[in-house]
From TrEMBL:
Organism: Pseudomonas amygdali pv. eriobotryae
InterPro entries noted in UniProt: FAD-dep_OxRdtase, FAD/NAD-bd_sf
Gene3D superfamilies assigned: D-Amino Acid Oxidase, subunit A, domain 2 (3.30.9.10), FAD/NAD(P)-binding domain (3.50.50.60)
Name listed for the protein in its UniProt record: FAD dependent oxidoreductase domain-containing protein
Domain called FAD dependent oxidoreductase: residue spans: 4-165
Pfam families hit by this protein: DAO
GO terms of molecular function: oxidoreductase activity
Keyword 4Fe-4S in annotation: no
Amino acid sequence: MCIGVETNKGFIGAKRVGVVTAGNSGHMAKLAGFRLPIESHPLQALVSEPIKPIIDSVIMSNAVHGYISQSDKGDLVIGAGIDSWVGYGQRGSYPVIEHTIQAIVEMFPVLSRVCMNRQWGGIVDTTPDACPIISKTPVPNMFFNCGWGTGGFKATPGSGNVFAASLAKGEMHPLAKPFSIDRFHNGALIDEHGAAAVAH
């Protein structure tokens, strides 16, 4: 039974604990004594030198699997899919960078000579059905919200409200029930692989 969290500043008692640790969800579950059906993958993004405004929204293409937007400062923010291997390395890989740039140049050939200023990688968790886990766990009073893949940033406000309501009541909110860990045991997987508009 989970009765709180041990931190480097001491113990914090709690009736319920919500674990929302993005790319480290599988590791956190292992520390709690159970296994999540999660894989962690590096996800990369790039930022260009500032240029004059040309893009006023996020543009995404499933045909070439890439997305691009432009910041108020003029930088292009560019990304694509996750690295194909499981891991926690955050520096990314040259093949993924190359594919990302190829995808953007295919959509916008005029950007072929724009210089990239920086690149970084983060870690995302993915599930077998590409849908999140918002669920109670085998550990009483411990709840997880994870497995969002590349869609977590966009879904955070809504899932946060649903998760907070679940923690407050100790029972899963009706909107969260389909996203239970149990679906991986009883076969009730969610058939929405294309809902995120990307293939994880």
